Amino acid sequence: MLASYTIKSQLVAVKIIKKKKKTDYHDIEMEATILRLGHTCPFLSRAYAIFQTESLVLFILEYARGGTLHKLIKRHRYMNSQEAQFYSAELVLGLKYLHKYGIIHRDLEPRNILLDEEGHVQIADFGFAQARKFDSKACHGFWRTFHTNSSADWWSFGVVVYEMATGKLPFSPNGTFQEQLDNITNTEPYYPETLTPEFRDFIQQLLRRR
């Protein structure tokens, strides 16, 4: 939802989380901590303030006037290589910054990538993020073991880049989970001739099975 933040005299986005008995407050604390990193990296969503009541946690976030990357792709159907490379470069910087602090996003997709009013990307929605280690000065320091490494983010990034360049997903999302997994494991994405050889190779490296 949108709101007016009087301290900043501007529109802000408000993310509201309802507290429940099964709510993992460690995850909420971690998301709040990650959002503080946005103040030191322009390619991450940032929080201006965080409040809580007996029943709610409220994140006061920068309002991304450009909408989401998902809406941009749908509006233009697909991007030319130059446009896709521009957004890809900014996403690389954002992901590297997260990984520098041991943070794995784990849910990178166009809907979770915001655009500011100048069209620059902001990686957002850290509800599924996991962290191995936070820098004690930047993030107030706490540890957590995770079962996913950074390669998961880079593979997801490859899917995002493919979708930007073609307007489609590289693998069919239909069927059961096992059918989708088999499709990813046993099929190769279609690469249109409009892609430059260099950009095609870049995407193939990201989606390479390891």
TrEMBL record:
Protein's UniProt name: Ribosomal protein S6 kinase alpha-5-like
Annotated coiled-coil segments of the chain: none
Species this chain originates from: Xenopus laevis
Gene Ontology molecular function terms on file: ATP binding; protein serine/threonine kinase activity
GO CC annotations, alphabetized: cytoplasm; nucleus
InterPro entries, alphabetized: Kinase-like_dom_sf, Prot_kinase_dom
Domain Protein kinase: 1-210
Key word Kinase present: yes
Domain of life: Eukaryota
Claim: Transferase is one of the keywords in the record: yes
Record keywords, A-Z: ATP-binding, Kinase, Nucleotide-binding, Serine/threonine-protein kinase, Transferase
